[in-house]
């Protein structure tokens, strides 16, 4: 069964739940200009993080802002290439598969309330965002 078929059935049987799911999956931003500032905010807010933890938090925060559907489950469309290229440049990663690797790790971490709180703390530092940790939800 295709995902589009499931979406159509959900839209027909539970339109309110379908609208909520669509809203949850819509990115807050589309332009990658804020990504370097997100990284700086992580370094300022959590200077004690090692490189791996910093990378996981960075991926989770960027994907929450730019491609939240990617954090819901593996196999969901990846973030746009411009965002992944900017992430590679900011973090000094070699290529997009590294972004995919950290996105996969952040998908597991984002389920934890403490990690959600960290992501929310980073995003709340920007005027463009008004997300709280209890608003970062997964199906």
Q: Describe it for me?
A:
The chain is mainly α. The chain has one domain. It has 7 helices and no strands. It has helices spanning 3-13, 15-25, 35-45, 51-66, 81-91, 96-109, 113-124. Helix 3 crosses helix 4 (51-66) and helix 4 (51-66) crosses helix 7 (113-124). The two termini are 19 Å apart. The model has no long low-confidence stretch (mean pLDDT 82).
Topology:
Elements: H1 3-13, H2 15-25, H3 35-45, H4 51-66, H5 81-91, H6 96-109, H7 113-124
Helix pairs in contact: 1-2, 3-4, 4-6, 4-7
Supply the key terms.
139 residues; mainly alpha; 7 helices
Number of strands: 0
Number of domains: 1
Class from helix and strand fractions: mainly alpha
> How much strand content do the residues show?
under 5%
Runs in which pLDDT lies below 50 for 5 or more consecutive residues are none
Main pleated sheet: none
Outline:
The chain has 139 residues and is mainly alpha-helical. The chain is built from seven helices and no strands. The protein has helices at residues 3-13, 15-25, 35-45, 51-66, 81-91, 96-109, 113-124.
